Amino acid sequence: MKKSKKSKALYTAGKVLTISKQGRVIIKLGEHVPRLGERVYDRNLKYVGVVVDVIGNVKSPYVVVRPLSTKDLRGLVDETLYFKG
After folding, report:
1. In the chain, is it the N or the C terminus that has fewer CB atoms within a 10 Å radius of its CB?
2. Which of 30, 22, 24, 18 is nearest to 60 (CA)?
3. Structural domains of the chain, with CATH
4. For the segment 4-48, what is each residue's pLDDT rounded down to a tens digit?
């Protein structure tokens, strides 16, 4: 018998605030906080990168994402990104 994969819910990670000088994507978090190592996707469910850090204070956290590719990162600014939880 095959095991069925559990479908994971899609959560809003937040809005991309900026791209750091090191090429990391900085996201202003929404309601849900992704785990370190969690994959992050764009609105088309294209894999963007991996969560590597959560920074800021508790009331206003940010997520740092290491992108899969450094091409066209500026196009992500102001976009909403998602993760599967």
Report:
1. N
2. 30
3. 10-84 (2.40.10.230)
4. 566 678 999 999 999 999 999 999 998 888 999 999 999 999 999
Residue 71 has pLDDT above 90, yes or no: no
Per-residue confidence (pLDDT) for residue 45, from 0 to 100: 93
How far apart are the C-alpha atoms of 5 and 2, rounded to whole Å? 9
What is the Cα–Cα distance from 75 to 72, expressed in whole angstroms? 6
Q: What is the sign, positive or negative, of the torsion defined by CA atoms of 23, 14, 47, 55?
A: positive
* Burial degree of 82 (CB within 10 A; 0-12, 13-18, 19+): buried
CA 55 to each of CA 1, 34, 75, 82: distance values in angstroms, whole numbers, following the listed order: 44, 12, 23, 18
Q: Are 80 and 14 in contact (CB under 8 A)?
A: yes
pLDDT of residue 55 exceeding 80, the answer is: yes
